[in-house]
Structures are given as C-alpha cells and as structure tokens.
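Researcher: Here's the sequence for the chain we discussed earlier.
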Amino acid sequence: MKLFHTLIISLVMSSGALLADEEAAAISDLVCLWHFNEEAGGKRVSGGKENYALEEVNGPIKRVEGREEGGHAVKIEAGQYFRITDGDFEAIDFHGPDAQLSVVAWVRRRAASHWQAVAGIWNETQKKRQYCLFLNATTRSDSRTMTRSATKDEIHGHVSDVGGPTEGKPFCITYSSSGTKVPLDEWTLVAMTFDGKASRVYVNGTFVAEEGYNPYPLKGPMFNGDAEFTVGAVDRGGEIGNYLNGEIDELAIYSRALTEEELQKLAASSEK
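Model: Thanks. This is the structure I predict for it:
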C-alpha cells in the first residue's frame, strides 16, 4: 500500500512537467528542450528532436524546484554557466540566408546585474556572434538611426550578420528590445525569434511592437561564427561574463520563428 501511495504522489507531481513537455512538443519544429531534471554535477540532456548535453562550467550548478510542481530548474550563480562545445550542436547552429529560430525559456531573475545572457551562440572576444537572448541591457538600439539610449529590465534578441562589432560602432548593436519589463523574483517566459529578416522579443508570450526597436531588422544573413553554444554566460572582453544570476527552466530551441499565438500558449501553461 505504501508503494502504491508513493507511485500516485510521483505521478501527480510529475504531471505538470509532462504537460509542459507536451505543449512544447505540440508546436512544430522543436529541436531541443531542457527540463533540467538531472542531479547537479552532471550533464543536462535535452529532449526533443536532438539530445544535446549541456556541460557544467564551474559547477556543480544547483538543481532547484522548478516552475512546474514536481519539476526542476537550475540556479546559475555568477561565475557558472553551461556550454556545448563547437561541432556538437549542428541542429541549433543557425546561420546563413535560411536561418530561422526561436529561443524560449522560463527565467527567474535574482539580481539586477546587466547584460545577463540566457542562451545562444555569441562569442564577442573572437568576433563570432550569431544569436543570443539577453536580459537587462543598459541600452536599447534604434535601427532607424543606429543610436542607443538608456534602459533597464528589458529582454533583448541579439543577432549578427558580421560576427564582430556593427560597422562604425565599438560593439554589436543589432538587437531587439521588449519594451516590457522583466521583474525580479518571478517566473517569466522570455523569448526571442528570428524569421530570416528581423529579431523579435516577447515577454510572457506578448509582442509589443515599437518602430525601430521591436522588430529589429538584420541587413544580411546570420553570421556563421563556429563558436560554442552557451547558457547563462557568453565570451566577451577576453573572458567569460554576462552571467545570468538566476534560475532557468524549460529552455527550448525551435528551428523557426514562433508566432505570438504559439508563445502565448506556452506562457499560459500551468503558471505558478
């Protein structure tokens, strides 16, 4: 009888995570989905079409209670991140004229530090930028004037067609900005999409259109940087930085730009 009760409790607790998995998989062109249910200290392997293994750097990276009841997330502290080394993630190495993608994740910010990297292929040090979703930049970029202005608490969908800094600028400034703020200490669905022409960002499934900022057009095809895929940090200024400082759950990568309707369905799934 005790074993039966334990089984029932286990099934109930896992139902939320299974539901989230079904919802993500029901949307076409899912490449990989990380639930982060594995114990700290080991690799985190994605479900979906591809089973990519994220390697801890400066771990162990803690496994904590996730957004869904019975599920788990990871808590990334400053100095920690995940990576997949070059050559081991072909299906999410988006580049060239046909590149389309979506990066979607539930995050819970724990610090107000700037330029927190969520996930992508973005090596600034070696001028190998492709795409990356960031939190809390200090500036937003206007594609009409190629100028930047101060901001905070937004999300940003960075894309590059040159790999290095934007022409005439010290940094890459081709990125969309959400307009909508991402709060501290709350689970929030953040997403960036790229349809081959422009970057868009969404907060809790909602797209706030703003001329010059969201969407943000990219002039050329996405750069082929041949760099690592990282989660929670990027290589910049000759060292790893831009640490996430928070929790991340249900990180999904799609091989096309999801629609607002699709992202709203994901945002509505079993919110805590």
